[in-house]
Design goal:
Distance between the termini: 35 Å
Number of strands: 7
Largest sheet: 7 strands, parallel
CATH class: Alpha Beta
Number of helices: 7
Oligomer: single chain
CATH superfamily: NAD(P)-binding Rossmann-like Domain
Radius of gyration: 17 Å
CATH topology: Rossmann fold
Shape: globular
CATH architecture: 3-Layer(aba) Sandwich
Strand content: 5-15%
Helix content: 40-55%
Structural class: alpha/beta
Length: about 250
């Protein structure tokens, strides 16, 4: 049985890492999936081929999540080509690192543009296309729950904004049965933060389970929220961090 059969999803930043795993998992579970990407067209096309291998429709859209017009256009194109939009996953992100003294105004503005403004505007564009019972899921960070080392204040601040947005929109959209949630991943084995990277041993030391997550483990929680099992979960944060914040 495919729990997402007949559904259409849009995943921002879906060409690699956690985003690509989410795209593949939603397609495996029956959804047609569009994804946005910034530069790596060949990676996005490869993920689309994986979607079609499941017998679903896939679509890759070049869109910078820091560009208000681009994120709105990505939503409109998804709805136009697939005829509907049921699931929105806000995954696109950047990872600024450094002290507050080292952080430029340009980096501050860009981080907030991607993690806060871009998410807000993508949801604003998507909601009119959603039937009652739609799903909005944003990807936050374990740093919202715990920040054990320096250099990530800007990142943690920008991801923390998603918690307030999620709670507020759960109230705004609850009357239509649209659920709104945020998933906070912990250290996950991706190109951005590989399990064999320079800081990996240090990060594992903070994790109760002592290992990195696989991207598919984060995607499994997203798919659950998008499916029948998630219809009474709204306005909350779900942490998938192996006990990082324990």
């Amino acid at each position: 049985m495919e729990p997402l059969a007949g559904k259409v999803a849009l995943v921002t930043g879906g060409s690699r890492g956690i985003g690509a795993a989410i795209v593949r998992t939603l397609a495996r579970d029956g959804a047609d999936v569009a994804l946005t990407y910034l530069r790596a067209e060949h990676r996005a096309d490869r993920v689309v081929r994986d979607v079609t291998a499941h017998g679903r429709r896939g679509l890759a859209i070049a869109a910078d999540s820091a560009d208000p017009d681009a994120v709105t256009a990505a939503v409109e194109r998804t709805a136009a080509e697939f005829g509907r939009l049921d699931i929105l996953v806000n995954n696109a992100g950047v990872f600024p690192y450094g002290s507050i003294e080292e952080t430029s105004v340009r980096e501050l503005d860009h981080t907030l543009a991607v993690h806060v403004r871009g998410v807000y505007l993508t949801i604003r564009a998507a909601v009119p296309h959603m039937a009652d019972g739609g799903r909005v899921i944003s990807i936050g960070s374990c740093f919202v729950e715990r920040v054990p080392y320096p250099g990530v204040a800007l990142y943690a601040m920008s991801k923390s904004a998603l918690v307030g947005l999620t709670r507020g929109l759960a109230r705004d959209l609850g009357g239509r049965g649209i659920t709104v949630n945020v998933v906070h991943p912990g250290s996950t084995d991706t190109e951005m933060n590989p399990a064999d990277g320079e800081t990996a041993d240090t990060e594992r030391g903070y994790i109760a389970l002592g290992r990195y997550a696989e991207p598919a483990e984060i995607a499994a929680t997203v798919s659950h929220l998008a499916g029948p099992g998630g219809r009474y979960i709204s306005g909350t944060s779900i942490t998938v961090d192996g006990g990082f914040a324990a």
